[in-house]
Amino acid sequence: MLRGSCLCQGVAFEIHGKVIDLLYCHCSMCRKAQGSAFRARGKVLASEFRWVRGEERVRYYESSPGQQRSFCSVCGSSLITRFTDKPKVLGLALGVLDDDPVDRPLCHVHVASKAPWHEITDDLPQFETLPGGPLPPSAAA
Ligand SMILES: [Zn+2]
Ligand SMILES: [Zn+2]
Question: What separation in Å is there between the alpha carbon of 18 and the centre of ligand 1?
Fold first, then answer.
C-alpha cells in the first residue's frame, strides 16, 4: 500500500496497488500545473485508489477536453488526473507520494516543450512528444 498527501495535509489518499508508467513530462501544461520544470507522474488503477481524508477539499480543473487535473483547494498541491474516456485509470503526480513507489521513471516526454532554463542530465530516453504516435489521453496527464 502506498500513501500520499498534499502540502497542508488536509487531503490524504491510499493506493492499494502499484504505480505504473512512471515518467517525466515536460509539456507546458504540466510545467504550469506543477510550477516546475516538469511533472513526474505515473498511473494507478482507479479501483485501487481511495481518498483517506479531505476529498471535499479536492477541486478539478479540465486542462484539456476529457482530462481533469485535481488539486487541493487549500494548498494547491497537484493530486490525481481523471480521464473521461479512461475512467479505470488515474494519473498521479508522484511528488505527493509519501511512500516509495519502487519503480522509477523510465523516460522524458514532450521534451520539445521543455523549459529553456532546464537541462536534462540523466541518460533516460527523451521523446519530442509522446512515443508511439498520437497522444493517448492517459499519457498526457
Ligand atoms: Zn492541501
Ligand atoms: Zn504533460
Answer: 23
If you measure from the C-alpha of residue 130 to the centroid of ligand 2, how many angstroms do you get, rounded to a whole number? Answer: 10
How confident is the model over 47-100, as pLDDT tens digits? Answer: 999 999 999 999 999 999 999 999 999 999 999 999 999 999 999 999 999 999
The SS3 assignment for 48 reads helix
CA 34 – ligand 2 centroid, Å: 10
Give CA–CA dist 134/82, Å, rounded.
19
For 80-135, what is the HEC assignment? EEEECCCCCEEEEEHHHECCCCCCCCCCEECHHHCCCCCCCCCCCCECCCCCCCCC
- 111 φ/ψ angles, rounded to the nearest 5 degrees: -65, -25
Question: Closest ligand to 30 CA?
Answer: 2
Q: 131 alpha carbon to ligand 1 midpoint, in Å?
A: 33
